[in-house]
Write a structure and sequence with these properties.
heterodimer; A: Porin; eight-stranded antiparallel β-barrel; 10 strands; B: 419 residues; alpha/beta; eight-stranded parallel β-barrel; 18 strands
């Protein structure tokens, strides 16, 4: 694990343990827990590759693109305390470039599939009303693996992938639109350690409170 | 909780930035051909073990001073290397002007990023009197390398004085540099397994090199250490996966090593060894699984070239695994194909390998080493980077050579060894 990955891991672990301890103290006399909710979030939007971009020097007529259209899915367990836990995956374009060398065109695309353990927390909890802004704002952080894929089209096609540790942080605003549905706008930073890739995304998401018990 | 959360985010953003380590060479080499006033006899006189009279807190009590050279066509450029016993340190000097006996260069410690400029002039001392060296030593004269060094790119101002003690140890011993001269991760000025690193190897103390051979998708033997393309070895270009999945054309066009070099073919590497260096040993480490015939063809071609040129150059195929042994056994004709076996003594004997190279962590293996040497075999040990054990192994005198990432340290302990 890299230094960056270790740091993220310990910070998230600290957050989780602190919240669990606080919850245990608060709820020690409670007779009933819940309600619990399983929330599925899916959406898409625009991504911007925010790390340095490596392009081979021999390429001429170079065209680079840092923008892409990501799509992500997140499944979260919302317990009866503030810290939520879940998994996130999706498809995040990183960058692409094309150029010509010795009269032959070359094109490279790089994208990542995150598989992350995600912790999320609304900025407010029991205080305030349902309409309070703080209750609709949330922050998320996660760590896990990225499957980074590259596709080269030059003198043939080579499609390869590499697994790397990484992390993400996100902030979201959620607007209720029904009893079980909400829409959310989320900005998210995906960071891949081994390949030094990073993408900033802005996504519109549909939030479905799938099960409650 | 809220405060903790904000603090955590702040911590994440502050610690998320990884520190980039750099050790750029602070001296720009002119690489002028020739050696100026440093004639062969002068160069021979200068080589030796020197006491560090001034500057020992930085570079240790004594150093080994040795000339090396690089050949470029009809031109030969001479360099002076100084190997210190402290922190895998070394100096590299070039001749400043043809009409002076002055040297300029840099020093570096490979265990960290410490580096700086240095300059030296050659002097003699007798009864406390210091004079410029004119190419002749009178009775009672002692050679001195007198100058200054600095930190990083500053003008050299801290005094450095080396005083001649004795000649270098001339025992036969192979100083084998890993990955063609040294590792990229040690922030050397050229990338590992590159042509430039092969040219640099002798200036880092090596008398031979180990290079890592793989095949491209279209069957070209190339030099590359790792299983995959990764940012430890290459510049960022988006390409991932095993190097064997790319053709030579794809690699040579789109992939650059960390310091901007192309991935060399084995043929170019061996050509560089013969045309540009005075290295005496090349260890072709078998990193591939599969037929060995293309490597064998190149090995034989360049052994023949070396013989025609009267070069004392051994090119051997290293067998580190059973897969490599199987590839060797599958060769139709094994004549004129020297090998080096890294496996146990029984396998080495069964293959009739002339060189046995156990890993150093197995210890001195005194009985086995003596038995193999008694059978006429050469014994190397790999990959030894610990100065304490390098010193111990060299002074025990059992092994015929050491493969190391730190050839300056092996050079220091070998050349300063007192018989």
């Amino acid at each position: 694990m890299t230094f960056r990955g270790r740091t993220s891991f310990w910070i998230i672990l600290t957050l989780l343990l602190t919240d669990l301890v606080a919850t245990a103290q608060t709820d020690s006399t409670a007779s009933k827990r819940g309600p619990y909710t399983l929330v599925i979030t899916a959406g898409g939007g625009l991504s911007y590759y925010a790390s340095h971009l490596g392009v081979p020097p021999p390429l001429e007529q170079l065209r680079m693109s840092r923008f892409g259209m990501p799509a992500t899915v997140r499944v979260m367990w919302h317990p009866d305390h503030r810290l939520r836990i879940g998994l996130e995956t999706g498809w995040v374009p990183m960058y692409s470039y094309r150029g010509v060398t010795a009269g032959e065109s070359a094109r490279v695309n790089v994208e990542a599939i995150p598989i992350l353990l995600v912790f999320s927390m609304p900025l407010a909890w029991l205080s305030g009303t349902e309409r309070s802004l703080a209750r609709r704002l949330s922050i998320s952080g996660g760590t896990g693996a990225y499957l980074v894929q590259s596709r080269l089209r030059y003198a043939g096609t080579v499609a390869e992938s590499q697994t790397s540790l990484g992390w993400m942080v996100a902030g979201a605003y959620t607007q209720p639109i029904g009893r079980r549905f909400r829409v959310a706008a989320e900005v998210e930073w995906f960071n891949v350690a081994a390949t030094e890739d990073a993408a900033f995304t802005a996504q519109l998401k549909l939030v479905w409170r799938a099960f409650t018990w | 909780m809220k405060t903790l959360c904000y603090l955590s985010i702040l911590l994440l953003s502050l610690t998320g930035c990884q520190k980039e380590y750099e050790a750029p060479v602070p001296h720009t080499f002119a690489n002028r051909p020739g050696a100026g006033q440093f004639t062969p006899s002068v160069r021979k006189a200068i080589e030796g073990v020197y006491a560090v009279t001034t500057g020992s807190s930085q570079f240790g009590e004594q150093v080994a001073v040795k000339w090396t050279y690089v050949v470029n066509g009809p031109d030969t450029t001479h360099y002076l290397s100084v190997f210190t016993g402290t922190d895998v340190g070394y100096f590299n000097f070039e001749v400043v002007k043809a009409d002076t006996m002055a040297l300029a260069g840099y020093w570096r410690k490979l265990v960290n990023t410490e580096t700086g400029r240095a300059r030296l002039s050659i002097k003699t001392t007798r009864s406390g009197q210091v004079r410029p060296y004119r190419g002749q030593l009178a009775e009672g004269d002692t050679l001195m390398l007198d100058g200054a060094f600095s930190e990083k790119t500053a003008e050299p101002s801290q005094p450095l004085r080396l005083t001649y003690r004795r000649p270098l140890n001339t025992e036969s011993f192979a100083i084998l540099a890993h990955r063609s001269g040294g590792r990229t991760s040690d922030l050397l000025p050229t990338s590992e397994n590159s042509l430039d690193m092969i040219k640099l190897a002798s200036r880092l103390g090596a008398t031979g090199i180990e290079i890592d051979v793989r095949y491209t998708k279209d069957g070209v033997p190339i030099l590359y250490h790792d299983n995959t393309l990764n940012l430890r070895l290459i510049r960022k270009n988006g390409l991932k996966g095993p190097i064997e999945d790319y053709t030579y054309q794809q690699l040579t066009t789109l992939v650059r090593l960390i310091n901007g070099e192309q991935i060399p073919t084995l043929e170019d590497a061996l050509e560089t060894v013969i045309s540009n260096t005075n290295l005496t040993f090349v260890w072709l480490d078998t990193k591939y699984i599969g037929p060995m015939d293309k490597v064998q063809v190149l090995q034989q071609k360049f052994r023949q070239r070396a013989a025609q040129l009267g070069r004392k150059l051994q090119i051997v195929i290293g067998l580190p695994t059973q897969d490599a042994v199987d590839s060797y056994k599958a060769l139709a004709d094994k004549s004129n194909t020297p090998i080096l076996c890294e496996l146990d003594t029984a396998i080495t004997r069964s293959l009739s390998a002339k060189i046995w190279a156990p890993r150093w962590t197995l210890g001195p293996q005194t009985n086995e080493v003596q038995a193999m040497k008694a059978e006429g075999r050469t014994v190397f040990v790999w990959t030894l980077d610990e100065p304490k054990f390098i010193d111990e192994f060299i002074n025990q005198g059992q092994f015929n050579g050491i493969l190391s990432n730190y050839s300056p340290t092996v050079a220091y302990y070998h050349y300063t060894k007192q018989l």
